[in-house]
Amino acid sequence: MLGWQITIWCRTPEELDRSRYGHSTAVLARWEDTHVRALNWLTELVEAGKAEQLEVSGYPSRWTTRAGEALPLLADGPPNPARTAHRLMEWNTDLMASCPADQVLTIEAWDQS
Fold it and tell me: 86 near 34, Cβ under 8 Å?
């Protein structure tokens, strides 16, 4: 595996599925991560009952959670144990700050192999 491209939207999965067009303004964050444990933070949210994994294929894998659960984990950048294995593509701190805690987020991780 080469890594993951991870995107977090301030949209529900249903909103994203209706149309991919026009959702670029809803991107909270997008980054590439080559660390082997790049998705552990999502697994931990699921195990704690704070997120749900909807798809597992890697093309993409998909989760949903509330902003109040995920956004604190992004306060210092992408949640990555190495803190060196990622490349930021988008990071919208203004949109993150204005996102209500109960807002449903969709997170996708695309396998880059």
Answer: yes
CA atoms within 13 A on the CB side of 106: 18
Q: Tell me how far CA of residue 39 lies from CA of 3, 16, 19, 22, 113, in angstroms.
A: 10, 21, 26, 26, 15
Q: How far is the C-alpha of 85 from the C-alpha of 72, rounded, in Å?
A: 20
CA 2 to CA 63: how far, in whole Å?
21
Taking a C-beta distance cutoff of 8 angstroms, is the pair 48, 70 a contact? no
The contacts of residue 16 (CB under 8 Å, 6+ apart) are 9, 23, 106
- Residue 21 in tokens: 């067009």
Q: What is the mean pLDDT of the chain?
A: 89
Judge whether residue 105 has pLDDT over 90: yes
Prediction pTM value: 0.91
Q: Residue 104 forms beta bridges with which residues?
A: 66
